[in-house]
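<derive_structure_tokens>
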Amino acid sequence: MTGDDDTGLETKPDGAWTPQESISYMLDRVRQGEFYIIGPDNETPKEVDQLRIMWSARDIAEGRPPLSRWHEDYRPMFQKFIDEHLSGK
């Protein structure tokens, strides 16, 4: 998905990072002493990535289905969770 000849794509999608970009980012974070590294993309804000991680941890703690944010029964709750946290409520 990063424009590699084996994928059949001529250009990489805008949101995707190349392997080199990913490795460079990871090494920079390791040099800064970080242990947990969230690999960003060019589409999702860091705050949304962090909220997705928090939601997924609660999937485990609360016994919800894995990746419940995509489940039709939980999607509205997830969207409300995101909206409230991003708006500062």
